[in-house]
From TrEMBL, chains A, B:
Species name: Cytobacillus kochii
Keyword annotations from UniProtKB, A to Z: DNA-binding, Repressor, Transcription, Transcription regulation
Residue runs in coiled coils: none
HTH lacI-type domain: residues covered: 5-59
One MF annotation (Gene Ontology) recorded for this entry: transcription cis-regulatory region binding
Membrane-spanning ranges: none
PANTHER family assigned to the protein according to its UniProt record, in alphabetical order: LACI-RELATED TRANSCRIPTIONAL REPRESSOR (PTHR30146), RIBOSE OPERON REPRESSOR (PTHR30146:SF95)
Gene3D superfamilies assigned: 3.40.50.2300, lambda repressor-like DNA-binding domains
The keyword ATP-binding is assigned to this record: no
InterPro entries per the UniProt record, alphabetical: HTH_LacI, Lambda_DNA-bd_dom_sf, Peripla_BP_I, SBP_2_dom
Signal peptide start-end: none
Lineage start: Bacteria, Bacillati, Bacillota, Bacilli, Bacillales
Name under which the protein is recorded: LacI family transcriptional regulator
Pfam families associated with the record: LacI, Peripla_BP_4
């Protein structure tokens, strides 16, 4: 068992008050350079560590943010995790991290965050019940949905304007005179998949052009299977729009395995712009989600809730990037 | 600011002692079912949350493990992170997560872990100075390197037996009568790249067969570039062994872009068995790192250090998996 050196011992040996020791270890607190040096030397000598947890009981601030994530196989969320961790670190927050294995965040996982007194919770790609949102509200812990939107939940939400983005993609496809148009959905109970479908399909519905909708699940494997099946039924689409990049990559590889020429015979479009989409072998045309902007907005909303209550919905735009899978 | 309900208030209203309330919220503690129910009801009513941080000051246990990771682009580490988080959760630990942007873990990042009184630290793919290891030792915080080994550091280490694995791969290549043999390294200052090179190259050195060594950096892009350059110099290897899967996939795509037939003209072998390697478009032959076993060993070593001092080095074996990029 380690012996914990207290601030009192450091204060005594450095011949300063305990509050001076405390100020030396509080970012931004005022203390003379000479005193600071002396305290740091004594702290080093005694192997003293300021205790963030003990401090949190006094300041009521833990500087911890809980982050819950589900889709371990989607590279989009790895990029998201990296950006969140770095941006939160730059603001002095630590990340308490939970991978959830369930579609819906479990009470037990939220309890875990509550026990550690996190100052805010970010949920990326899992569902949240309104029960849990109410419980968090009672505990005054702000929660922000990232890349998800649920009109029934009274919490912050940051996502891409998926309806508009998918509408723009539809316009682009339309000007290339496509007739056989396929949309592969993501997990159908997610707002991202629903909104992208709505924006894309409604555009063509208004023009009386049918869209073939295939039920995917945001995985490469499922999209590969669905596309292979299409080609084996002798249906070669003019364009396939996948609800995310990993779906589009699965479709693209299935087309290649059936020796369908991309983009000459079939065009493929994704959504996200994960790093892999720009690999030379893929060169996928896709919608760029502005992840940095989305992460900044998420942190801004969490911090806003430290000063005021209420919740906000933020939609960011992004842009289409044309690579080699579209004409 | 939220009002924090104390265990005393719960005890009073439930008409039990404070220690009974504490037992109800301590996993495994003895308390009658009837009392447990009454306490839980009152806790719910008062919106009481047991405070892990306050408890940690008494028990000296935070149940937090610090996890530091660097390579955000390598899918191998995303799989590793998912498995660590789930296995640690099952044992009652939380994960305090840090992405490090530097080759070597910085003192500041370690301080962060120390401030939160983590019970152990796992470092995946970053370097650690012996200074920091000494400081952690003085603080009695066990540290385990995952997928790294450094004979100069006095800390636990869990990795694949890379030398033996690469030696087995060399044997396999040798029985296929290859002459033009290429090894693309990872980051050359990592133990994984050094050991895989040693095991592979030494096998052929003993037989008087030269191996062309290209300096990669564990990225897809670098391997793609190096392989493309080789082919453009009219050097078509019989086999390319990449120091990890993402390297092998870069090489594979470069070969395809130059219309080199795999495995007929050039075979490709990776190391890791990331999920992407079994995608139908890749079907990469590779060495399977037994991630689950490696994670279990890492946690076991951290927990061992709660009872005894000293450090251990564990090497696990893994196995070769033959897919479609080798004959």
């Amino acid at each position: 068992m380690k012996r914990i050196v207290s601030a009192i011992e450091v204060a005594r040996l450095a011949n300063v008050s305990q509050s001076t020791v405390s100020r030396v270890f509080t970012p931004g607190a005022s203390v003379s350079e000479k005193t600071r040096q002396r305290v740091l030397e004594v702290a080093e000598q005694l192997n003293y560590q300021p205790n963030a947890l003990a401090r949190s009981l006094i300041t009521k601030r833990t500087n911890m943010i809980g982050l819950a994530m589900k889709d371990i196989q989607n590279p989009f969320y790895h990029e998201v995790l990296g950006i969140f961790t770095n941006k939160l670190k730059a603001k002095g927050y630590s990340v308490l991290f939970v991978y959830t294995e369930n579609e819906e965040i479990q009470q037990e996982e939220i309890n875990h965050f509550l026990e550690y007194n996190v100052e805010g919770i970010i949920i990326t790609d899992a569902m949240l019940s309104s029960n849990i949102v109410t419980k968090l509200k009672n505990n005054h812990i702000p929660v922000t949905l990232f890349n998800r939107y649920d009109k029934n939940l009274e919490c912050n939400s940051v996502s891409c304007d998926n309806i508009n983005a998918a509408n723009e993609i539809a316009k682009y496809v339309d000007h290339l005179y496509c007739e056989k148009i396929v949309f592969i959905t993501g997990k159908i109970n997610t707002s991202t998949s629903q909104e992208r479908q709505e924006g894309f399909v409604n555009y063509f519905k208004n023009k009386g052009i049918p869209v073939e909708i295939l039920e995917g699940d945001y995985t490469y494997e499922r999209a590969f299977f669905l596309t292979k099946e299409l080609i084996e039924k002798d249906y070669v689409p003019d364009v396939i729009f996948g609800a995310n990049d990993i779906t589009a990559l699965g479709a693209l590889d299935a087309l290649k395995s059936k020796e369908i020429k991309v983009p000459e015979q079939t065009m493929v479009i994704g959504f996200d712009d994960i790093k892999m989409s720009s690999w030379p072998n893929y060169n996928l045309s896709t919608w760029v989600q502005p992840i940095e902007e989305m992460v900044d907005e998420t942190i801004r909303l969490l911090e806003r809730n430290q000063r005021e209550t209420g919740h906000k919905t933020v939609k960011v735009q992004g842009k289409f990037i044309h690579r080699q899978t579209t004409k």
